[in-house]
Design brief:
The chain is mainly α. It has 13 helices and no strands. The model is unreliable at 323-352 (pLDDT under 50). Belongs to the 4-toluene sulfonate uptake permease (TSUP) (TC 2.A.102) family.
Length: 352
């Protein structure tokens, strides 16, 4: 019990609470934010394996709650979720063993994991931005706004699950960011509530398998897992409650910047050759963040112009991210109430 009351435990609790708020505000998956935050805090000696295991354990708790809500409301496509699970669970379980097959040296293992997480964060940032662009094109094309029962494509869906499973098993990142965009590409007409519910249902066994596998190999540091759960759950609830009052478009743009900075910083921390070895470059990370903060809105504006829209205004980033813009009131309400990556509330105020 004394381990829960230490300064380190309080910092983990605070990190969990803050990341939980962001998850509640935006629906962004916690792994992409929590894992790098804990690594930079240096908890558990800054060892990536220890942090990934604790993060997956905490995620298994709050994702189960979200999935239960959606299952009760009947929103998931269980056949689609079943094919995703068939691909993701074995790969999530095998992922940590695959890493340990190639190296058992603790220092080398830590470097491999940090490199993997760094690249996974960059992939998450890219897929997050790509998802917005795909939805922008769909809105402009007048594409389908919802299909409650699309024909499931077993093999592609299974492969999507396998990709998400290996990413989550190794890095704890990808259960929402990567799988969501892949499902959106495979099933562009799937309604928002079905997409969110399906992702949450498949995420529970996926995260559980990844957590069990990592615990079996690395053990579980309860001194990290308990305060992480205690902090993240109320943070997520609070974020969900205040979400309608917060300008979502700014937050979502910021997430792309933060994910990119975190990914580059972890690659730097792991000594990736293009960034230099045995030395961190905080100035480089800061410059990348500043450049992105300036360029992202400009690039997005030109993409909007290319689709015949003004550079700024409706549909806002948050409206596109909810998959409910132009859809039914039911889908929009579901997206506002949903829990999980890409299911955050909309903000109908145009953002310049």
């Amino acid at each position: 019990m004394t381990e829960i009351l230490t300064l380190t435990a309080l910092s983990i609790l605070a990190a969990g609470f803050l990341v939980g708020i962001v998850v509640g505000l935006t629906g962004m998956g916690g792994g992409a934010l929590m894992t790098p935050a804990l690594i930079f805090l240096g908890v558990g000696g800054g060892e990536a394996a220890t942090i990934v295991t604790a993060d997956l354990t905490a995620a298994a708790v709050y994702k189960t709650g979200g999935a239960a809500v959606h299952a009760k409301e009947g929103s998931p496509n269980f056949r689609m979720a079943g094919w995703l699970i068939l691909g993701s669970v074995p790969m999530a379980f095998a992922g940590p063993y695959l890493v340990h097959f190639f190296t058992t040296d603790e220092e080398q293992l830590d470097r491999v994991l940090k490199l993997s997480i760094g690249f996974a964060l960059l992939l998450a940032a890219f897929t997050y931005a790509l998802r917005l662009y795909v939805n922008l094109r769909r809105v402009r094309a007048g594409g389908p706004t919802g299909d409650p029962d699309p024909k499931v494509r077993p093999i592609p869906t299974l492969l999507v699950g396998a990709l998400g499973g290996i990413l989550v098993g190794i890095t704890s990142v990808g259960s929402g960011s990567v799988i969501m965009i892949a499902l959106l590409m495979l099933y562009p007409g799937l309604s928002a509530v079905k997409l969110v519910g399906t992702d949450l249902v498949q995420a529970v066994p996926l995260v559980l398998a990844a957590a069990i596998s990592n615990i079996a190999i690395n053990g579980l540091d309860w001194g990290i897992a308990i305060p992480l759960i205690i902090g993240s759950v109320p943070g997520t609830i609070l974020g969900s409650k205040i979400a309608p009052k917060v300008p979502q478009s700014f937050i979502r743009r910021g997430i792309v910047v933060v994910l990119t900075m975190s990914g580059v910083a972890l690659l730097d921390k792991a000594g990736w050759a293009p960034l230099g070895r045995e030395e961190t470059h905080p100035v480089l990370i800061g410059v990348i963040g500043l450049v992105m903060a300036v360029l992202v809105p400009v690039v997005w504006g030109f993409l909007r112009k290319g689709q015949g829209l003004p550079m700024f205004g409706a549909p806002t980033v948050s409206e596109l991210d909810s998959w409910s813009y132009g859809g039914s009131r039911t889908a929009r309400a579901a997206a506002r109430a949903g829990v999980g990556e890409g299911s955050g509330p909309t903000d109908d105020r145009p953002v310049g």
